[in-house]
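Summary for the funding panel

The consortium committed to producing paired sequence-structure records for every protein in the target list. Below we show the first two records in order, beginning with the earlier of the two.
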Amino acid sequence: MNTIPIHQDPVDQLLEIGLKDLWYPICPSSFIKEKPVSLRRLGRKLALWRDHEGVLHALEDRCPHRGAPLSQGVILGDRLSCPYHGVEVRCDGVTVSVPGSPGCKLEGQRATRSFHVREVAGAVFLYNSAEDVDTPPPLVLPEQLTDDAEYSNFLCYAEWKGDYRYALDNLMDPMHGTFLHKQSHSMAEGDSTAKFSVRQTDTGFFFEKEGQRDVNFDWSEWGDTGMHWVRLAIPYPKSGGPGGNFIIISGYAPIARDRCAVFFWRCRKQPPGWQRDTWHFLYRNRLEARHWAVLEQDRVMLEDMELDANQHENLYQHDLGLVRLRRLLKSTAQEQIDSRAQA
């Protein structure tokens, strides 16, 4: 019996695990405490730990000796000691000690992939470089996550069963709020029909309803600042407390083809003081559960879609935003593949 090999499209293969040379949020900061942690993200198994001063480090979770998980080892400051044979690997990927065979050729080699990490807004960000780099580009985030004098934010983190690209499609589809979330206290208003347009920005583009703003989930903004993010706003009634519209910044990280990590920062523009304190109280005691209920509606819908659902679509005008984003991601993936082939 003859078998026909199935070859995955290299563009789709790259997109499945995440584009290179970008910053990605990979987990909440609270995930990494006193012991090393192992995470599958971006097509790799990663080992993350804090040294004795609390500084975060990340290596590929594979000892250069026999491939054992470094994450099961012992923290020695900026090094991990492999539990299998005691091999010590520094945070830059260099093997500094082989206790069982001192002076062997493995010592001094940079034989393990290392990754640059940062902690901002309650999350760990990792630079997914194609090759080891000594200095990564700066992590540039929307002001809602970095301007503490003007904005307050909460991080909502979840892991969903499904391709992360469906989560992105969902964010670039403002119209689903009118239907899927129509019982929500913040998305019950607005027209059930709309025409959309695309507006270019310096970092990406807006996809927005024409003639309707600050009524429902009326627009999505795609941004690429060395990290991919989506920004949107949900109008809030006065009962939602001071601070104006509720702004959501979203990020993602692929875990596997059928699993992804999703990040939703809930933000409002508020100076420190009684307004911010009031918002924090209202959010924790009244609003957070409602927001999780809306996310649960998204999760249930997306997790019940077939992995190949996007191969059986009939799109229309409301889908211009996700079509534009898909083309952008595919073209970027092709550029990265071509660049590596030339190198």
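The next record, for a separate protein in the list, is shown here:
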Amino acid sequence: MAPTVVSVVYPKGAKFDMDYYLNHHMPLVREKWESYGLKSWKVAQYTNPESPYSVIAWLEFESAEHWAKAAASLEGKDTFADIPHFTDGKADVLVGDVKKSDSW
């Protein structure tokens, strides 16, 4: 099974509390979804003024099936219920299998 990356991108112009996101929401994501195959997460804030997005989170899961189970779980409902605490925007969620990666 290929690892799956879930990219969650938040629209520019929406309210976004980065401090809450990094210090509460993302630890909650790990706590709730690690048992469902979440392997890592990263968050970046876009600096390009032309971007339609302001923030992206990359969530790496063991597989697409693991992501689907996490999202549909009771823990997933708890995680999604936390969203209004840091943004009033609607995120786009993109899911894809990793084809190849490299790091150095």
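Regarding this second record: The two ends are 24 Å apart (CA to CA). The helical segments are 18-33, 64-72, 74-81.
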